[in-house]
Design brief:
It is a single chain. Helices cover 78% and strands 0% of the residues. The chain has six helices and no strands. The chain has one domain. By secondary structure, it is mainly α.
Length: 174
C-alpha cells in the first residue's frame, strides 16, 4: 500500500498527517489546560497518557471502521478494485502516528525538566512545523507555508486549552 494511491488520493499519508496532528495537539491541549489550572506534573502525566492511549485507540478504531465501511460499501456495489487498502493497516498507521507525535508534549514532564511546560511548547512547535512540512512535501505544496498553517491551527488549540484551564481553575472551581 502506498502513501499516495494511483488515483492521486491520499491514503496512508492522510492517516499519518491526521493522526500526528491530532496526537500532538490533543496531548498538548491536556498539558496546556493542566498548566493553566496549575496542576502538578504527575497529574499532567496521568491525564496526558490517558489521552494518548484512549484517544489514540479511539481514532484508530474510528479510522478502521470508516475505511471498512467504505470497502464494504464498494464491495456491495460490485466494485472490485478498491484503493482504500486494508482497514487494519489504516487503523494501525493512525494509532502509531498518534502515539509518536502525541508523546512529544509529555517528554519534558516524564524527565521532570525544569520549565517543562516551556520545553514542551518548543517541542510541540517543532513537531507541528515538521508535520506541516511533511504534508507540504507529500502534496507538492510550499513546505514553509504548510508548516506555518499547521503551527497556527495547533497553536490556536493550545491557547484555547490553556485559557479554559485557567478560567475553570480560577473562576469556576473556587
Amino acid at each position: 500500500m502506498k502513501l499516495i494511491n494511483k488515483n492521486n488520493t491520499a491514503t496512508l499519508m492522510r492517516d499519518i498527517v491526521f493522526a500526528a496532528n491530532d496526537g500532538v495537539i490533543t496531548t498538548f491541549a491536556i498539558v496546556a489546560g493542566s498548566q493553566g489550572a496549575s496542576l502538578s506534573n504527575s497529574i499532567i502525566l496521568v491525564l496526558g497518557f490517558a489521552n494518548l492511549l484512549a484517544d489514540g485507540f479511539s481514532m484508530a478504531s474510528g479510522n478502521y471502521l470508516g475505511v471498512k465501511t467504505e470497502v464494504d460499501y464498494k464491495t456491495s456495489k460490485g466494485e472490485k478494485d478498491s484503493d482504500e487498502g486494508s482497514p487494519f493497516v489504516h487503523g494501525l498507521v493512525t494509532f502509531v502516528g498518534f502515539q509518536i507525535a502525541g508523546i512529544v508534549p509529555l517528554i519534558p514532564f516524564l524527565f521532570d525538566y525544569p520549565g517543562a511546560f516551556g520545553v514542551s511548547t518548543v517541542f510541540v512547535i517543532i513537531v507541528l512545523l515538521l508535520i506541516g512540512a511533511l504534508r507540504g512535501w507529500a502534496v507538492g505544496k510550499d513546505k514553509l507555508k504548510s508548516s506555518f498553517e499547521m503551527l497556527f491551527i495547533g497553536g490556536f488549540a493550545a491557547v484555547v486549552a490553556y485559557v479554559v484551564g485557567y478560567v475553570v481553575e480560577n473562576y469556576v472551581v473556587k
